Amino acid sequence: MPTTATAAPAPDPMGADRTLMPAPLTPEAIAHLEERARHVRLETIRLIAIAKVGHYSSTFSCAELFATLYYDAMRLRHGEPRWPDRDRFLMGKGHAAVGLYPLLADWGFFPKELLDGYTRLGNPLGDHPDMTKVPGVDFSSGSIGHALSAGLGMVMGGRMMGRRFDVYVMLGDGEMQEGQVWEAAMAAAHQKAGNLIAIVDRNGYQLDGQVDEVMGIEPLADKWRAFGWEVHEVDGHDVAALATLFRRLKQDKARDKPVCVIARTLKGKGVGYMEREAGWHLGYLAPEDEAAAIAEIMGQPTGLAILQGDAR
Amino acid sequence: MTAANILAGPANPGSWQYRQLNARAPGLSYLSDALSALVEDGHLVMAGTADLQYSNGLARFAARHPDRFIQFGISEQNMVSAAAGIATTGVMPFVATFASFLGLLCCEQIRMDVAYSALPVRLIGHHAGIALGFYGTSHHATEDLAIMRSIAGLTVVNPADGPQLAAAIKASADHPEPIYFRIGRGQEPNVYEDLPDFRFGKAIEHETGTDLTIIACGTMVHPSREAVRALRASGLSIGLTDMHTIKPLDRDAVLAAAERSRIILTVEEHNILGGLGGAVAEAMAEAGTKAVLIRHGIRDEYSLVAPPTHLYRHYKLDAAGIETVVRDILA
């Protein structure tokens, strides 16, 4: 295994190890999560400028999910990516890893300087995450449809080891078309994997167009319920709503059903021209577009305003 | 339901299937017993299968250690990916299904989640080759060695019998890489006594000879040994090497045999493309040996359907057939 694991000393973003429930969800805490989501978007733009092509819009749709999970919901220890009791995070939609790497660096799992060499020869950070190379990546991904099974395996292994951690698996909505997802869904309910939490980033688009035109997946909530899951639907850009939901889920230790959170999101969220243009799955910003995108991200509040606005 | 068996679908030792299993496939008890021994020695292992606990004999393990057994139902891909997830937590999972399903249906899960992720998952492909006889060519696995051998980071082992499988499983406790174990149907006669010496990548030389050396693997070791005995009794100088590890191949053993013998004959219950014959061909060609290579196995075709013993006879993969092949070569 490459030796990128030697984390440089970095300030703990939360000031302490997060083994206890976080402080009350104050306006300041909410503002902090919104700032972290902006950080995800800005870093995504910066890193993709190095690669010269990347998945901006798929990452923007889950920026608030990343922020809420990594700065509110998950139990992590700064600088200890292999802490055995940590909560796990897996990505079915591994192509959004560019938004995850800056948070892993922020947690002190690897030196921040590595971000500057994103996708360059010899650097561990690629478009899709590799757990053998990147400390803090709990599972490799790249072939859609495997992650929920792997997450279920982590639940089962943790059970045998007598450890209780939560396993969060972020899935794309196009990923619902993969058969293995439903094998895992059936098995997780059968195994009463109450600490398995699937999050569907329901941004409505996949490579070839709108999910519901390419291969319809609705009624999605009913499907998960029919498979024996507890289902929650939430605005995936409202960090207060997300944090409230994830806190409630964490407190329910007696739950014996796995949970599916369907997060309604916008592909390209935060940059108007990406939100309105379906072709923005994979792209590259010219310098003037990049400047406009950064300005928009810096100046714009996040939340329902966009969902209800002129986005589509 | 206790906490322990929430995970499991424990087998009923009084059931008809359970009794059939022990009566008809005694070789499979080595699998369950070796896994039980690991548990009882304090190793953090689990076993799982996809609706085949009576085919692979894991029912025996499940009855003994229900809290270490996972029934995945008919979802092989989910089983392999979940095994990878289990392995991330420090538990070593052994998951078993028919070799045809494991090698072909789960190929990408094995490559992505197990091997690329470098997790110590143990994959057990049973009823490999043509062992499922008349159940259908769909159930035959004559491609799995070629597929598994090309997956980087995966150790590929084809034990000759139950005792060697048990020894390999025992040795796997200290083996950090993922492993593919290719095994038969549990009705093969034993070649070895209980717990023979076993080292991954270290072939076992049974006989040496100058006319021809057979390099065999898996279920073909026993009939090859019978054939070699008959051939030697008639005055021919015939060697035999058990190449139980296909990857990493024991190149030194191949080249030593090629140094001594004019002809190397590989014998495998697999397509002659890409498996043992392919691996030995690569080693011999790269070293530029003087010995020539002949590959014996399934000749790049879909195998016929018939009772296994009839198929072994048809494809000259029983002792008499292998003896005939050698005599024809030397004639």
Automatic annotation (TrEMBL), chain B:
Sorted UniProt keywords: Thiamine pyrophosphate
Record-linked Pfam families: Transket_pyr, Transketolase_C
Keyword DNA damage (UniProt): no
Coiled coil (residue ranges): none
Cofactor: thiamine diphosphate
InterPro entries: PDH/Transketolase (IPR051157), THDP-binding (IPR029061), Transketo_C/PFOR_II (IPR009014), Transketolase-like_Pyr-bd (IPR005475), Transketolase_C (IPR033248)
Domain of life: Bacteria
Ranges for domain Transketolase-like pyrimidine-binding: 25-190
Presence of the UniProt keyword DNA repair in the record: no
Stated family: Belongs to the transketolase family.
Listed PANTHER family: PYRUVATE DEHYDROGENASE E1 COMPONENT, TRANSKETOLASE-LIKE PYRIMIDINE-BINDING DOMAIN-CONTAINING PROTEIN
Protein's UniProt name: Transketolase
Organism: Azospirillum lipoferum
Lineage: Bacteria, Pseudomonadati, Pseudomonadota, Alphaproteobacteria, Rhodospirillales
